[in-house]
Amino acid sequence: MNKYIVEPYKKSKDATKSPLRYPGGKFYALKHIMPYITCVPHDEFREPFMGGGAVFFAKKTVAINILNDLETDIIDFYEWIKNEKRCEDLIEILSIQQANRERHAEVKCMEPATDLDSVFKTYYLNRTSYCGIINRPAWGYAEGKSSPPANWGKFLRDASTKLQNSDLYSMDFSEILRMPATGKHVLLYLDPPYYHADQKRAYTKPFEIEDHIRLARELKQTKFEFCLSYDDCPEVRELYHWANINDVSWLYNTDNKPGQNRKACKEVIITNYDTEKKI
Predict the structure, then answer these.
(1) Which CATH number applies to 3-277: 3.40.50.1820, 3.40.120.10, 2.60.40.2250, 3.40.50.150?
(2) Cβ count near 42 (within 10 Å)
(3) 142-163: per-residue pLDDT in tens?
(4) pLDDT per position as a tens digit, 252-262
(5) CA quadruple 243, 247, 276, 24: dihedral positive or negative?
């Protein structure tokens, strides 16, 4: 088992923010998670549960990047903006939008006629709905606090640049884990739905207890190094008693109430490699 030195997080020169708001997104956790990723030399990076992709967009881009999520609307969005021309087409439509309850209701009821319509609907609802949830979305844009439509174009262009050197999939996580290595050193980062998550509210695809067990089994058998973020609960600690479990906490968005401060929640970062902290 390899051992790596975990040092304070330093932002990569090509780091950018995710263009998406995402339930359970890891933007506020980057300073805790990234040290466990940047310490591992790798030329192939895989993220089986991409979601908002906060870690991918923050880390240094490597030669091979394999990104996956079962939420096909999200992968379709990333595929769309990865193409520079199509990204600009989307930006053109978004540039004339207003973020208000009336427009949110209209877009929510919209029946897309084209792929561009579908991607527009996904992104508009993500930026204007509570916690970015597009599954049965509720209005969640706060004037003066939420990023206005005028900023969305930059988000998309920056993300498009970052996505150029990536392959996007919408498959079961096990298929991503079992892919033969193309690079010399593969690193996996996994951010599955949390064990005690309210999945009916945030996701369209279920991730049942059996899937959590299956994930632990797959990771125990993998020949690749992995970093896994999870909610801190007895079930997770039991599933990964054979790995290294690191206690952390950060401010978490999903369970918060409008107008209230974000809550601090206990989490764990699990690895199958040893680390020595210098943070």
Answers:
(1) 3.40.50.150
(2) 21
(3) 998 999 999 999 999 999 999 9
(4) 554 444 455 55
(5) positive
Question: One-letter amino acid identity for 98?
Answer: Q
The residue ranges of every structural domain in the chain are 3-277
Distance between CA atoms of 153 and 132, rounded to whole angstroms?
17
Nearest CA-CA partner of 122 in 165, 72, 85, 163: 72
For residues 156 and 78, is the Cβ–Cβ distance under 8 A?
A: no
Q: What residues contact 193, with CB distance under 8 A and at least 6 apart?
A: 24, 49, 199, 202, 203, 207
How many Cβ atoms sit within 10 Å of the Cβ of residue 131? 20
Residues of the chain with pLDDT under 70: 198-203, 250-265, 279
Torsion angle of C-alpha atoms 34, 226, 71, 73, degrees rounded to 10: 50
Q: How far apart are CA 46 and CA 55, in angstroms?
A: 11
